[in-house]
Design a protein that fits this description.
Blueprint lengths: L6 H19 L7 E8 L7 E7 L6 E7 L13 H8 L4 E5 L11 H16 L5 E11 L1 H11 L2 H5 L9 E5 L11 H7 L20 E6 L8 H12 L4 E6 L6 H4 L11 H11 L1
Parallel strand pairs: 3-4, 3-5, 5-6, 6-7, 7-8
Antiparallel strand pairs: 1-2, 2-4
Helix pairs in contact: 3-4
């Protein structure tokens, strides 16, 4: 299913979303965790991450590695304190990652950045009381695309020096996984063509993959819920464990905001993610 936005609409939506996230962040408690900001996992200006470390950890904790959304063109980790606090408050070390954006970054640069950040976190997780064998890769929208690509195409992690089987699970929130052909000229430029199968996570499902939780709003007019449905069906056809959650009266931005204090009654996404992490 093709995207329904052009570059200008995506930019406006990101500005609106940024304002909503800023408002949600104002409600976030500042206690119970420590934030370590702007840690470099590479030499690039955008190759940085923030780490939310729960207070009082006495044993290695699960790690949630999260990639922000923004149509591969916008967004920043600093907008995600609400997400960091949400999971750090439950004893989960939470890492929010920046990655290369278009322009100038084009596919597959942002996937490569994602793989590099995973390997960096895996190698240093114990420094933050995290368990390197329990890292969950997640993301929203474009970030979910990155997470799914790392979960389906092991070549990216392998090229970064990581074991492709190392991720404990993948959590995709409102992600584009099967969205060809492209119509937006900006995205055609970004992905190197309007119909390039190598850009699609679903194209690399040819066997069992790590467990996945795919979450989508039924009213998502930006990235249709069919993306999650089709990816789940293909994963299941190869025997992979997949949990799919659809939320009624929820759109592309609202699904992520439902992780923030004051918004969590809108969906069960927060509980669904915690249950998925606890199970695995």
């Amino acid at each position: 299913m093709a995207f329904t936005f052009d570059n200008l609409k995506a930019f406006i939506r990101t500005l609106v979303y940024g304002g909503m996230v800023t408002a949600a962040n104002a409600l976030v408690p500042r206690s119970g965790y420590t934030v370590r900001k702007d840690i470099a996992y590479g030499d690039g200006a955008r190759q940085t991450l923030d780490i939310y470390v729960p207070d009082g950890l006495t044993a290695p904790a699960p790690v949630l590695l999260f990639f922000h959304g923004g149509s591969w063109q916008f967004g920043d980790k600093k907008q995600y304190r609400a997400l960091g606090q949400a999971f750090a408050s439950k004893g989960i070390v939470t890492v929010v990652v920046n990655y290369g954006l278009f322009p100038p970054a084009r596919f597959p640069r942002f996937i490569e950045d994602g793989a590099r950040s995973f390997q960096y976190v895996r190698g240093r997780a114990r420094e933050w009381s995290g368990d390197p064998d329990r890292i969950f890769i997640s993301g929203h929208s474009a970030g979910a695309h990155i997470a799914a690509m790392l979960g389906t195409n092991g070549e990216y992690l392998r090229a970064a020096g990581a074991d492709p089987s190392a991720p404990r699970g993948i959590i995709g929130i409102a992600g584009p996984y099967d969205f060809l052909p492209l119509k937006d000229p900006v995205l055609i430029d970004l992905f190197g063509g309007g119909d390039v199968p190598e850009t699609q996570p679903i194209a690399f499902v040819d066997g069992q993959r790590a467990p996945m939780l795919l979450a989508h709003g039924r009213d998502d007019a930006t990235v249709g819920a069919g993306n999650s449905k089709r990816l789940a069906q293909k994963l299941q056809s190869f025997g992979s464990e997949v949990v799919v959650r659809y939320y009624h009266r929820t759109g592309h931005i609202g699904i992520l905001l439902s992780l923030a204090p004051g918004f969590r009654k809108r969906t069960t996404l927060y509980q669904d993610m915690l249950a998925f992490i606890a199970k695995h």
